[in-house]
Write a structure and sequence with these properties.
The chain has 62 residues and is mainly alpha-helical. The protein has a domain of 37 residues. It is 48% helix and 0% strand.
Length: 62
């Protein structure tokens, strides 16, 4: 189990999780399905989708 320090509010998601979640969403799957599958919030998915440019070499500043 991962221990979260007092200064860290959440465990960051991996790049591949962000990439595949956005790809699934853009392929027409419902937001609720994508969020449930990857255990993410709707706000995170929408934020990643807005910054997505189509390549895997993204999200360095997310």
């Amino acid at each position: 189990m991962t221990i979260i320090s007092q200064t860290q509010r959440y465990i960051p998601h991996e790049l591949k999780t962000k990439y595949y979640a956005v790809k699934l969403y853009r392929n027409g799957y419902p937001v609720s399905f994508v969020c449930r599958r990857y255990k993410i919030s709707k706000a995170s998915l929408m934020r990643w989708n807005k910054k997505f440019d189509g390549s895997k070499k993204i999200y360095l500043s997310l």
